[in-house]
Amino acid sequence: MAEHNRRERSPGIKLLFVALIGLVLTVPLMMIYALVYDRQNQAQTAQAEINAGWGGAQVVAGPLIVVPFRTTETQTETVDGRQVSRAVEVEKLFYISPTENKVATQVDPEARVKSIYRSVLYTAQIKGAAKFTLPADLTRFGVTRERLMWDRAELRMGASDARGLTTGGTLSANGNPLSVQPGKGPGASNGQGFFAFLPWDGQGDLTVDYSYGLRGARSLSLVPRGGSTTWDVTSSWASPSFNGAFLPEKRDVTDKGFTAHYQVDKLALGQPPVGLEDYGAPVLGTKFEFREATSSDAVAANIAPSAGNISAGGAAENITGSSLAISVDLIEPVNLYSKVDRAVKYGFLFIGFTFLAFLLFDVVGGARVAAAEYLLTGAGLVLFFVLLLAFAEVIGFTGSYVFASAAIIGLLSAYSAAVLKSWKRGRFVGALLVGLYALLFVLLNLEAWSLVIGSVLLFVALAGVMYTTRNVDWSAVGRKEEAAA
Prior knowledge:
Elements: H1 2-8, H2 11-24, H3 26-51, E1 58-79, E2 82-96, E3 100-114, E4 117-132, E5 154-159, E6 169-173, E7 176-178, E8 181-182, E9 193-197, E10 206-217, E11 219-223, E12 228-235, E13 240-244, E14 250-254, E15 257-264, H4 266-269, E16 274-275, E17 278-280, H5 295-302, E18 307-312, E19 315-322, E20 326-330, H6 336-345, H7 347-363, H8 371-395, H9 397-419, H10 423-445, H11 450-468, H12 479-484
Parallel strand pairs: 1-11, 3-12, 17-19
Antiparallel strand pairs: 1-2, 1-5, 2-16, 3-4, 4-10, 5-9, 6-7, 6-10, 8-9, 11-20, 12-15, 13-20, 14-15, 18-19
Helix pairs in contact: 2-7, 2-8, 3-6, 3-8, 6-8, 7-8, 7-10, 8-9, 9-10, 10-11
């Protein structure tokens, strides 16, 4: 029995116990990781409820002219077991994109709160002027002027969430106001928006002026189409994120807001000026922010296969492919769930360094630390992340981080002084935790350098441990046990 007790107190056995306890603590860490995910989903649900009735993330498109035309097609049918071909007249739609489109948008943000959650809403005033000209070689695009039914021509504007069109809109052609009707938006806005019947016969140039108010949440995107597209965006929101297929040519972001200027040429879009098909909604979500975009980024963000047919006034709309889009997000200055999620991933670092300090005091300093004391200390370290998440939703990430770290440092410093039988050792553990929490805060805010800083510090820590334990015989049972023998 005495020999067994001596073996349990050997440095090697103690190291094994510490490793096993650390492994056990991975279970509550994984539970906290799942808790962060659950709270983030709850926040998104609450934000969706705040946005309900106001308008979601908006994708605006247009103006786009749509003109029906009749053409003859050959259809093959089976009659009495034989293939019979016959010519039938069908109605299709012809899409005319602007040769030039200049858009100016003023975005007025507003943060709304429900319980402890909040969402960024906005009201946008969109004004623009577009120019249309039919190509001289129109027949090469599959239609002739004589086939076009100009008496049914439509001018279409799109907003992906029509709930946001609460302040109305105006359209004018060559200075003449048009009567606006709901619906029939371009395919890029999922067919939502408004339109007007257009008194134009395709002769000469057509100038279209438009203006409308739009409510939305978090994101506003513009789908450029046709020739040259210019978009100027102004807002008092100080934390924009520039996404989509194109970055702004010029941007100015200050504490008082931002301005952005976009210029997109027709060659960058890869779309003909006129055609027999419309383009579907863009695929959004890839964040470019303040860096140069690559061609692979643009493909990942916006190009996805989609196709379909929408019935509109007797003619079938041919929707194919995805549109390219420019997007501006009104993001929160601090994404607390993302930061807490990253902090939890460093939980093993906290547990490892603290347990290592206890082990060195045990093996080198002669203090006796029981398995239960390791376990309780680990529980305190894990509790930090629960406190961080709980208070971050109420007082913000930075305030929560300071409060949670101060509480855990004070608790574990006092407990370590009792366990290690020395206030000097307790203060050392406290200083270690202060350094660890300060390091973690730096790593969370310097994402690009976090791996470099973390790897260098781990190297330094490993070197220090190797130096401190260079004379420890990990297979021995300790001096006291040898003397007793």
